[in-house]
Amino acid sequence: MYGSVSLRQLLPLLALLVGGFVLPMFTNEYYLYLGNVLMMYAVLAIGLDILMGWAGQFAFAHTAFFGLGCYTTALLNIKWGIPFMVGMPMAALLAGAVGVLVAIPATRMRDIYLALATFAFAEGMFWVFNTWEPVTGGSTGLRIISSNVLGFKVSNDVTAFPVSMALMCLMIAAAMYLSKSRLGREMSAVRDSEHVAMSCGIDVRRTKVIAFGISAIYAGVAGGMFTLAQSFASPEQFGFNTAILVLTMIVVGGMGTLPGVLIGVLILSMLPEVLRTTMRSYQIWQELVYGLILILSIMFMPRGIWGSLAGYFVKRDSSTSTVKRL
What we know:
Blueprint lengths: L6 H16 L6 H26 L7 H19 L3 H23 L4 H21 L1 H4 L5 E2 L3 E3 L2 E3 L2 H24 L1 H11 L1 H6 L4 H26 L2 E2 L6 H14 L4 H21 L7 H15 L3 H22 L1
Antiparallel strand pairs: 1-4, 2-3
Helix pairs in contact: 1-7, 2-7, 2-10, 2-11, 2-12, 3-4, 3-5, 3-10, 4-10, 7-10, 8-10, 11-12, 11-14, 12-14
């Protein structure tokens, strides 16, 4: 499970990176828009999975850092003309710093108390986004201007697509290296048993705080990616519904597994669009079908899609080995 990331594991990311520059030449803008949304959710979901799936911390503050990354990146560009490649890292680091500050008191709590405390923080940030009109635009929202990336103006989904792809690949690669590192192993140990982790010399509280900070940085990067392909930001986009959607992505796909998270993002990002186009005459049933799919997934695949597939292949390999021995 652990070790170094091989070139073979990085090849799919290289292929995606090449595709990010090639696909805009042959794909219409609507599909590129969906791709930008999917890549943004991928980074956001990976960040939440680092906190919940790797470190085992059940927290609901992720959308607050998502909104913080979005508004900070946009405002740095609007107010001071700071380009995206400078403003987005600054926003991500700010989100990470706030995440650490929130984690210092929050990590003293566990389970439902941690969830309630972080949910309270998320609601507090939502209130700030919704009422601080001179800065965020309040409930009427904030108009986002076009970003400047390495001298190129990003003004639509076509020009945003390769930038989003590069950022997504970078964040996936960072998660892969993190999973193989000592810190990644410490997070997994804390998730499995805090008492055993402490007996092994792991500073449990420090590991939790770092997990919060890294998760918040991922959310801040996703917020910056939001400004690339969107021209308008409103507080509702960083509320409880988004938190539940991202949580559902990692649960349905397979919490604690990078492939599972990406599968969950792919399915649940595209599902609303598929339902809207295939059930246009029965729009009243779309939400019912969406909810039914989620319920059935959780009932029959408690380890998520990726966990169920992995379990199936392990059982099949075991059966094959037994038959060969007989």
